[in-house]
Amino acid sequence: MSTGNTDKKVGSGAVSGNQASIPAEIREAAHIEDGDRIRWYWEDGELRVEVIRQRKNVLPDGFDGFESEGGSVDHDEVGLEPAGRIDTGD
Predict the structure, then answer these.
(1) Over 70: is that where the pLDDT of 3 sits?
(2) Which SUPFAM superfamilies did the record assign (predicted)?
(3) Is the pLDDT of residue 67 over 80?
């Protein structure tokens, strides 16, 4: 794993089932945050990992969703009841 400097980081983590923990010192050095993904590679007898960063702010400022082709949609039109209203079958 390359962190952009020559400091060697070594740590140990636990494996439980299909999950492996990443030591805090390694997470901090690699800037791994919640939501990031790890891609694992096994090649020529060596294990290598790649950090896939979580994309933030992927929608433009002011984005307020999409409108339907016929304009805005009332929730009742798509089968959802507004909060607080219950269908009693009357």
Answers:
(1) no
(2) AbrB/MazE/MraZ-like
(3) no
**8 Å CB contact between 88 and 82:** no
**Please, are residues 11 and 1 in contact by the beta-carbon 8 Å criterion?**
no
* Structure token pair of residue 39: 């891609």
**What average pLDDT is seen over the chain?**
76
What would the CATH number be for the domain defined by 1-55?
Answer: 2.10.260
Q: Which of 15-47 are b and which e, b meaning 16 or more Cβ less than 10 Å from the residue's Cβ?
A: eeeeeeebeeebbebbebeeeeeeeeeeeeeee
